[in-house]
Amino acid sequence: MEAKSVREKEQPKTKETFEPKIVAFMCNWCAYSGADLAGVSRLQSSPNIRIIRTMCSGRVDPAMIMRAFELGADGVLVAGCHFGDCHYIEGNYKTMRRIELLKMVLARLGIDERRLRLEWISASEAEKYARVSFEFTEQIRELGPLELRMN
Amino acid sequence: MSKPKLALYWAASCGGCEITVLDIEEKILDVAEFFDIVFWPCAMDFKYEDVQAMGEKEIDITLFNGAIRTSENEQMAKLLREKSKILIAFGSCAHEGCIPGLANFFDRKGIFEYAYKQSPTVEEETRGTYPQPHTRVPEGEIEIPEFYDTVKTLDQVVEVDYIIPGCPPQSFQVWGVLQAVMDILKTGKPLPPKGAVLGAGDKTCCDECPRERKEKKIKEFVRPHQIIPKEDECLLDQGILCMGPATRSGCGALCVKANIPCRGCYGAPPNVRDQGAKMISALSSVVDASNPEEARKILETIADPLGTFYRFSLAHSTFRRAQIPNGKAQEKVVAQQEAEAIH
Ligand code: SF4
Ligand code: SF4
């Protein structure tokens, strides 16, 4: 069955009622552990982020990111290990190139490329995760809801 | 026993799909012998009313080519759906929008603005006269179909049973499908599962390509006229943007054998929802850059990435169209595309 976009069920958003929906793809070895550490350390992080754990940031296909936008995300965060730390050696280099090209394509499609963010977060960087989560939420809040036009 | 009924129709298309049917040459006589062709505006004199007068599901098979650009296209799609047991999206336009679908970078306002006002070929007296759905003339009112903002694919307006991809589908594949269909109708064999892609392979164009592939490390993309490509090496390895890795097999690697890159007309490979996304993924593996700035520099040498990755599939892609606010921001898109075309 086709998943239905949350947009179809929602009330129209106004500036006041808009709460950004952000999907974060985070790699198992670094970024996800970093976010986990933030939780364990009781650091505040943004509640607008919905995390999906992947084995590697290199696993995140552009189609998955597009699908997230299609189904209602206002922003997508992809986070992986710092260069040199990738569990699969160079998965994150691939991710970096992929996100660059995807941003170019999104921009040409009329979708602000700031809605897609790439970050390197190590397993010990709980604070970085917390900071990025708020920063990105505010960025998306400023950009407003992503309204897709299919017709 | 009466013959099975066959219909062919064209919506927003170039006519190439009609030619490809005739390209099966004298075998068209076998088709005409086996089927009762009940509707084929391109080749035979039937009218809309003839189809309207038919019973529900009276036509056994309809090959529908062309995208849905106007209200008339949609009306015909709905009528033929109602009258057909099996409706096949025939060719890239019906399947995923194809070249007409590239108009989804704009909308009606932008297209009209250019076609009826800005274009240098518009006659001065009529400059700025736009088509209206209804026009009053002394004899009464004329109605023409509505031009939609967004080109749609056949499966976005009606249920589609099967797909035959390609721009156009290769005639040997068309003949293969027709033979299989005739066999099924004769012997009562089971039909392929609904939604199946017929007349194509289940791999990528690269699998059919005879060129030799090495480990790719691309420092710069070039356009086909800028170099003389080596005949036996993978074009992508040589920096020419070839859509082979993101395109379904089936044509026999026609273009690459003629020394030009695959443009992607057979559509997304199996299990891929978005051809452009697949190409982004494929290219990310071959660009030789270890930081974002370097990557950007190399990727910016791709001429018109959007039009290249989605040349045939924009209308069927995740976003279906450029996300421009209604009628606005045309200038920006046009300016960007013109700049890229010059590059
Ligand atoms: S990328 Fe193009 S030239 Fe290279 S193997 Fe694939 S189809 Fe052939
Ligand atoms: S090589 Fe590509 S563009 Fe050419 S016919 Fe085959 S699928 Fe179409």
Structural features, described:
The complex is a heterodimer of chains A (151) and B (343). Chain A is α/β, with parallel strands linked by helices and 151 residues long. Chain A has helices spanning 31-40, 62-70, 91-108, 126-143; strands at residues 22-27, 49-54, 75-80, 116-120. Chain B has three domains: 5-99 and 150-187, NADH:ubiquinone oxidoreductase-like, 20kDa subunit (Rossmann fold, 3-Layer(aba) Sandwich); 106-148, no CATH class; 205-312, no CATH class. Chain B contains 14 helices and nine strands. The longest helix of chain B has 17 residues, at 171-187. Chain B is globular, with a radius of gyration of 22 Å. The termini of chain B are far apart. At the A-B interface, α2 and α3 of A face β8, α11, α12 and α13 of B. The site of one iron/sulfur cluster has 14 residues of chain B, from α9.
Layout of helices and strands, plus pairs?
The complex is a heterodimer of chains A (151) and B (343).
Chain A: E1 22-27, H1 31-40, E2 49-54, H2 62-70, E3 75-80, H3 91-108, E4 116-120, H4 126-143
Parallel strand pairs in A: 1-2, 1-3, 3-4
Chain B: E1 5-10, H1 16-22, H2 27-34, E2 36-39, H3 48-52, E3 59-65, E4 68-70, H4 71-83, E5 84-90, H5 92-96, H6 98-101, H7 108-118, E6 134-137, E7 140-143, E8 147-152, E9 162-164, H8 171-187, H9 205-208, H10 254-257, H11 275-284, H12 292-299, H13 305-309, H14 330-342
Parallel strand pairs in B: 1-2, 1-3, 3-5, 5-9
Antiparallel strand pairs in B: 4-8, 6-7
The structure holds iron/sulfur cluster (2 copies).
